[in-house]
Write a structure and sequence with these properties.
Length: 153
């Protein structure tokens, strides 16, 4: 984290890469996915996003940060479910499931998930689930708390 000034102000990331989901939570997520999967699905946990500038402020609150823009190849937002994948996605309370594309199985698979889990609902079509449109963002204070909890600082 030596060169934090290299990160862009508007870059937003999912916090999953920085252990926002604990090892125990990850194991529980996988076990739950194994219980309900039919085969071929992609499971996407609902986790908060954060701004890289807020991460920098959580680590170095006293430093003045210089914003210089995106580095070559860097994305502004992480996309977990694309517009195209939304056609086959199902929303649960704490996760999303992207069902396989192959036709007959896909229709049955979506019906299976929707029928067997009352809390499941069809994901809106042509909507992208990404770190920009995520409804939950972590504050600087929340980021710092997670960094301390996970022994990053």
């Amino acid at each position: 984290m030596k060169n934090l000034k290299k990160y862009a102000f508007s870059v937003v990331r999912s916090f999953g890469n920085i252990r926002n989901i604990t090892l125990k939570e990850a194991i529980e997520f996988v076990i739950n996915a194994l219980k309900i999967m039919k085969g071929g699905e992609v499971f996407v946990p609902k986790i908060p996003s954060f701004k890289v500038i807020d991460l920098a402020r959580a680590i170095y609150p006293e430093k003045k940060l210089k914003i210089i823009g995106l580095r070559p190849g860097e994305k502004l937002h992480e996309e977990m479910i694309s517009n195209g994948e939304s056609l086959n996605a199902i929303e649960y309370k704490n996760s999303y499931i992207i069902c396989p594309y192959y036709s007959e199985y896909n229709i049955w698979d979506q019906k299976h998930h929707l029928r067997n889990k009352p809390s499941a609902k069809k994901f809106p079509e042509n909507i992208s689930y990404n770190s920009l449109t995520n409804k939950r963002f972590l504050s600087v204070k929340e980021i710092k708390k997670l960094l301390i909890k996970n022994k990053f600082i």
